[in-house]
Amino acid sequence: MKKRMILMLAVAGIFIATIAAVKTRQIQKGMKQNASFQPPPEAVTTIIAKQEQWPATWGAIGSVAAVRGVTVSADLPGIVDKIEFESGQSVSTGAVLVRLDTRQEQAQLAAAQAARELAELNEKRARDLVAQGIQAQADLDTLAAQQKQAVARVGELRATIERKTIRAPFAGALGIRQVNLGQYLEAGAAIVPLQSVRPVYVNFAVPQQEVGQLRIGSSIHAGADAGGVAEDGRITAVDSVINEQTRNVNVQATFANADGKLKPGMFVRANIGMGKGQSAITLPTSAINYAPYGDSVFIVEEVTGPKGNKYLGVRQQFVKLGPSRGDQVAILSGLKDGEQIVTSGVFKLRPGAAVTVNNKVQPGNNPAPKPEDS
To answer: Which of 44, 91, 136, 352 could form a disulfide with 95 if both were Cys (CB 3.0 to 4.6 A apart)?
Structure first.
């Protein structure tokens, strides 16, 4: 029994040793194959780095304001008798918007005109009597004063009637009507907004360290997300006071706004011309490998493998980024003219990775794409 047990253990040991030896050879063979394995090259697109003139601009957030804008309101209380405009209508200077009921004032005016005529007759009779020595000069002076008061009363009532005809103080575009026919209006009650939007202002703030580069008449470009609005204008005013809390200075630019797309209160992004600019290498933003420890690009060049073999691969190069415009970003340092830079497929690369270049389809590289945020 013991001999049989020993024999079975010996056979099992030999079997396990044989299996272990076979697996060891397989593992060693796999390790050798893995060490010599070269992953297939990654397909990428590239661009040749070259120096370009990069315009000096400053980006700011601005708000559109009307050159002239008011909410037309009632000057005197009264009942709306006629409404002579439509919401959203364009009007000229002096156009009648609303007429208030003036029947009471018209009746008072008729009475005042009759009183004026009587005062004029009394004053004329007294003048003749004074000339004949029949009436005293004091009576004539009293009647003359009454005649002037009657004339003033007529003028006052006519002015009141005119003030109840509400007109547009300047040419512009009306907003939404805020009154209805027959409505009683208090003095100062809002009737309709009126904005002059050709031209318009864009107000924004610039840090104090950039103020020295601002010039009246400098070009400025403004864009808004709403409907792809884009306009070019000029800086027309720089505030004389710097905000003590933010250390920013308020700047105002004027835009012709011929098509009226810039609306008062609209949020816009403004790019301000700040001089001649500088020379920089420009790349598509898709070429940048953004990372917390530093931004980098991949340069395509001939790479030497572990066994001394040569192949087309990539080298990771850290760079210093400058401003961006459209699809492009400026590279301030880290690259040289003539280097071949990967522009797409960056996310799948590692230093030394083999690549194959296929430039049939290139990523966007337009400094002024349409729309702007394409």
So the answer is: 91
State the chain's maximal CA–CA distance in angstroms: 174
pTM reported for the whole predicted model: 0.56
> Residue 372 above 60 pLDDT?
no
DSSP 32: H
CATH-assigned architecture of domain 102-163: Orthogonal Bundle (1.10)
What is the predicted pLDDT for the residue at 1? Answer: 65
User: Residue 210: pLDDT above 80?
Assistant: no
Domain with CATH 2.40.420.20 in the chain: 42-54+278-357
Calculate the CA dihedral of residues 98, 104, 107, 112 and round it to 10 degrees.
Answer: -100
**Tokens of residue 108, six digits:** 């008072």
CB-based contact 262:209 (threshold 8 Å): no
End-to-end CA distance of the chain, in Å?
86
- CB count within 10 Å of CB 87 equals 11
Q: Which CATH architecture has domain 42-54+278-357?
A: Beta Barrel (2.40)
Question: How many whole angstroms separate alpha carbon 245 and alpha carbon 131?
Answer: 78
Per CATH, the architecture of 56-100+174-276 is what?
Beta Barrel (2.40)
Does pLDDT of 278 surpass 90? Answer: no
CATH 2.40.30.170 maps onto the chain at 56-100+174-276
d(CA 3, CA 352): 63
